[in-house]
Task: structure prediction
Amino acid sequence: MIQRIQTVYLFLSTAVMASMLFLPLAEMIDATGQFYVLDLYGLKEAEKGTMVLPLMPLTFLVSVAAAVSFITIFFYRNRIMQLRLCIFNILLQIGYYPLFFYYYYQARNQIEAMADIKISVVFPVISIILVFLATRNIRKDELLVRSYERLR
Result:
């Protein structure tokens, strides 16, 4: 069952969440013209690379969500556990947004800057959709297996 479509969905979800570790979430510029980059590791000055505000809880949350997506692939023999892990993963990814906006506004207010949010902020929504599609297909497989057991 590892070659099922839900494996593709979960792998794509893993790839999308893992790519967030390397992409910026926002760019900020303060009144003096200093340029800052907000990524999952923290708010950094673009030129010097010095950390202004670390964001370790956000990094941890995205890393765990990517790991859960990847680990879920290998529970193909235990579809009920796969469903539970998918629901847990969706909850983790939904929890990303309040945490992100908290740190975003905190960083913006700390340096009093204008901010530009990047497209990588949408990646958890894409991942939630992919995990939801995987959940639907896992549920279909479970219903199919149960129907075959009734026929025996």
In short: The CA atoms of residues 35 and 111 lie 10 Å apart.
